Amino acid sequence: MTAAFRIIDTGVREGRANIAFDAALIEERQAGRVPDTIRFLSFPPTVLIGRHQDLSREIDLDYCARHRIGTVRRITGGGAIYLDEGQLGWELVFHRASLGIAALPDLAREICNAAAAGLQALGVDAKFRPRNDIEVGGRKISGTGGFYDGDVLIYQGTVLVDLNPQRMVSALRVPRGKLAKRDLDSAAQRVVTLKELLGPDTPDLEFIKIALLKGFKDVLGVDAEYGAITEGEEELARQYYDEEIGTEEFLREIDNPAAEDQVLAGTYTGAGGTIDAFVKLEGPTQSILQRVLISGDFFVTPPRIVFDLEAALQGVRLDEVEPAIEQFFDETEVDTLSVAPSDFKASIANALEQGAANG
Predict the structure, then answer these.
(1) CATH 1.10.1240.10 for domain 3-251
(2) How many CA atoms lie within 13 A of 119 on its CB side?
(3) Between helices 304-313 and 321-331, what is the axis angle to 10°?
(4) How high does pLDDT run on average in the chain?
């Protein structure tokens, strides 16, 4: 069985406008006003941070301002990335039932295998590396991620065709521990481009798109044809841009929370990513959670689960935090979570231990 997809190419758009179009495409697909879609996209020099990341911790904002590098908060989770015209973005937006695979981890594997098959056709030994990378010889050539919003999935990836590694390393604040884990001196050594692998034989973007589409067809059974971008998508994208995604408030929604007075900070890194917890206490004996803010490079779908968890922990006594987290995840429908509930417990516990040590 083949699944019919529309192909659209939105070209190079300013970073926040690109993400606003994602939100519009999801909503239009949910409403049934557009079909399942494969979108190709490109960015001017831009740093994208994940939905739950701490802005100042992930990006050198001064460097980005001096070099006119855009700064954007995504609507998907995961870590910060640098993009420019040297990378080709691709994404699939489709109904849960379209490919006959319901679970996001299974879909991620199959979509990444499909993209890898397309890259293999270009002459590189691309392979899926769980949980969401495509690699050549242990170096990342494509990072991916996605989430369900109701019955519609958006799954995104990039192909590193060319890259200015110095600009990437300067724009991003890559933790030394993350590099040491892979015995790397810099983030640039973690990635590889088609230009490095293929040299003068590097194909142009149109040829790369054709190869990816063939991979999606062969592995996923997708039958895709180019179609038109609708006026409804463009109008809704402008609305998302103006009201949320294009605003500084959305970008700075999480920005250096540890700098606030009397905030305790803790972190925990597990197999599925890093969770940072910022905790403020209240009460005569400082034994009640006044507020918890959670950030990190983990994936959760739908993303609003994190905000719901923060709300659920407000006003909870310290001796009831772990049961409250367990109850929240027992009672909440989560499509996928790269980290475990125990990781949230550990991160908050580390923040509280800091408070006890300082007290």
Answers:
(1) no
(2) 30
(3) 140
(4) 91
Strands (E), the chain: 3-12, 37-42, 46-49, 70-73, 81-83, 87-95, 126-129, 133-136, 139-149, 152-160, 222-226, 264-270, 273-282, 288-296, 300-301, 336-337
The architecture (CATH level 2) of 257-358 comes to 2-Layer Sandwich (3.30)
Helix/strand/coil percent split, the chain, to 5: 40, 30, 30
Return left, alpha or beta for 273; rule: phi > 0 is left, psi -120 to 50 is alpha, else beta: left
Task: Convert the pLDDT of each residue in 54-106 to its tens digit.
Answer: 999 999 999 999 999 999 999 988 889 999 999 999 999 999 999 998 888 89
Report d(CA 304, CA 311) in Å as an integer.
11
The Cα 278–Cα 296 span in angstroms is: 11
Residue with tokens 């231990």: 353
**Segment (H or E) for 338:** none
